Model the fold of this input.
Amino acid sequence: MVSERQLEAIKGAKVLMVGAGGIGCELLKTLALSGFQDIHIIDMDTIEVSNLNRQFLFRQSHVGQSKAKVARDAVLKFRPQMSITAHHANVKDPKFNVEFFKQFNVVLNGLDNLDARRHVNRLCLAADVPLVESGTTGFLGQVTVHVKGKTECYECQPKPAPKTYPVCTITSTPSKFVHCIVWAKDLLFAKLFGDKNQENDLNVRSSDASSSAHAEDVFVRRKDEDIDQYGRRIYDHVFGYNIEVASSNEETWKNRNRPKPIYSADVMPENLTEQNGNVAKNCVVDTSSVSAMASLGLKNPQDTWTLLESSRIFLEALKLFFAKREKEIGNLSFDKDDQLAVEFVTAAANIRAASFGISLHSLFEAKGIAGNIVHAVATTNAIIAGLIVIEAIKVLLKDTDKYRMTYCLEHITKKMLLMPVEPYEPNKSCYVCSETPLSLEINTSRSKLRDFVEKIVKAKLGINFPLIMHGSNLLYEVGDDLDEVEVANYAANLEKVKIQASSVTLCSSPPDFCCSCNDADVLLFCFFNIFSLYFMSFYYLFLSCLRCYLSFLLQLLMGQCLP
Ligand SMILES: [Zn+2]
Done:
């Protein structure tokens, strides 16, 4: 039941919806049926076949079209009097600036990634527009309300990092299939097809003093070696030799099942490889269609391959990478949408699982685990969308006391599905919504400006258009309106270690960037306050040297050391 007061607020509201996917479709429908009249939608995605089972505003004929536009058209069919504006664009596009956000009474997020959520959070803070944020993972979901100065912002609490596993579990003592997947994806795949300069723990346990010669360059294809021989050598090394070395350590296996080494000749008698698919070289192919399953005649991704099938897929996939995608080798990183990569990783994980007595899994399951995919549930999206609208109405009425963060979860003991919690107050030390400056400590003798900009400012702090100043000097900025000279200067600055950068770029003025510190090992203190930056429609990052050495909060953000 909607009261007169609520109806009035709904009718007069101008709403921005970010995301027109799983939650977005449900949300737009619920907003329309609740009486909202003026809605803008931003979504950069186009409709895919896999969306159709739950994103019910879309049909087969819409595949390839803009989600935002098709969603608008679908809703206008049953609510033709509404005003719906669709933007087929990235919400991070500079045209959606603070001024753009200010026209709305409330912003509703139905996004699928952290980066865009942080971006919208900051724009809402800068524009002083309330944000209702949401997310679902399978049967779980949550809706939270963020109003500047009244509740915490989206970034007040650190977000849980993706689950990681101890290195030794992955390299030597896997006990679950996911450990085998992580090994196959992050170690073996990366070692064979990724950047050769990246550190890799693949040989951690097998490269003791006596075997270091053996481990040397084992992954590099020898000149006189054909691809079948190479594949079998890799197979025998990682599933045979390495396991044999690892299993010889008595201590490790006292309370665990000792793994058994697997050699290719035991699984696949020599003649079997002859039956592997023929790879014709030099014919032009669409790399996205290269598939070891296809060349071996395995069709159903939900079937669990035997050890023999996994072994054949392993060799075939490796062969196909060299035969059809050789140019990419050295630059590949695992992608759950890369069929051949998923086949290779599934096969390698299964062979390793067989060795450690862990049950084998299908490609479909392995892909889900490797890509951290939790299958979406339409009902959860519908519940969450309903809760978003309830909170949006409270926000429009400024019923501050009634705001709730609601978690959709199965609470076994209390037999409840929804758990409402009163929102927390803003976190006083949040570097996004409070005035608290963030201090960073950087080893300026080793860190280039590029490290600072790419790894910290962009990746960790989520600032997309930084402008780095030192006093009144501009060290770095991003934008479409820069001229060639500026672009070249900033690019050159990026490659400099910061102390050098300061003395070079500040040649026209005293190089006070590092103050009186001439010692190259001295650490530089930088100070900035992100929040104030957002009032300029793009983001300024002030970097100023207060003192040359100060304590710092970086570990809070990074949890790791600077380069
Ligand atoms: Zn905050």
Observations:
- The longest strand covers residues 131-137.
- The CA atoms of residues 386 and 433 lie 28 Å apart.
- The chain is about 40% helix and 10% strand.
